[in-house]
Amino acid sequence: MSTTIKDSSAALKSAYAEAGWSRIPFRFDSKALELIRERVASISRERRPEVVHEKDSDVVRAIHGCHLFDDVCSALVRHPQLVALAEILTGKPVYVYQFKVNLKQAHEGAAWPWHQDYAFWNKEDGMPRPEAVNVAISLDDTHEDNGPLTVIPGSHRLGLIGLPNTVEGEGDWRRHVSADLAYTVNTDTASDLAQRNGTELMVGPAGSVHAFHPSLVHSSSNNSSPDRRALLLITYNAVDNAPVAPTRPEFLVSRETTPITPRRDDRLAVEPHGQAPATTTAPPPDHEPG
């Protein structure tokens, strides 16, 4: 099986357009994963604004903007396969809009409520259109008990759903990275969508790569298992879709909108994803996860 993303571009584009997400037919190898995990662990121990903790806890929830100051993360966003994937799915030259690692520690990782990423990017940053793509890399084995992403396939075609005219605490970026999200999809609305479209879990072995649309409705439950779940997310945005005057910190929304130049780094090798698609149908939720 080829690990060249262009070989499967037609199938990927079709699946992505239909469902709003797709599993990518390659994964990062064990040496690349070990290196990325080491860097994430090192950054997580630092006291800096890019490192977010669970509420009233020293448990790290997420880290942001690592590509701006870490050489491995900087090399990762320039990976030729990832850049090609983003350009295929957006149909345009891209730049890195956002970089983050969401961490769900064993038995402690809290839920993320139903939401659409594009709600934040449009309302807070002024991104004109959802012409971006999230590329998600599993740093750990991800299974149904350690808080995987739950997605509602096809929900990206509905646009932004049920946003309020005003939001309490609007403009406070901390409400965009905590469990108390500023923009969420109403629980009843999400349940209705799930009844119609079903839900799927974004699961798979460590190193797996998935892509999902900015308007895809998704959530994740608490981590009830003894296994950590770390998910690295790179958001690539079309160059002609950059916000004009973003106000959130640089580590949440990049001001550098020059088309990214792919660059190979032998430390970050990929291999064919030789397993059957790791997609599990989840039961339709009747309440917010967690």
UniProtKB/TrEMBL annotation:
Keywords per UniProt: Dioxygenase, Oxidoreductase
Region (Disordered): 255-290
Pfam families: PhyH
Domain of life: Bacteria
MF-aspect GO terms: 2-oxoglutarate-dependent dioxygenase activity; iron ion binding
Gene3D superfamilies named among the record's database cross-references: q2cbj1_9rhob like domain (2.60.120.620)
Protein name: Phytanoyl-CoA dioxygenase
Organism, as annotated: Streptomyces bingchenggensis (strain BCW-1)
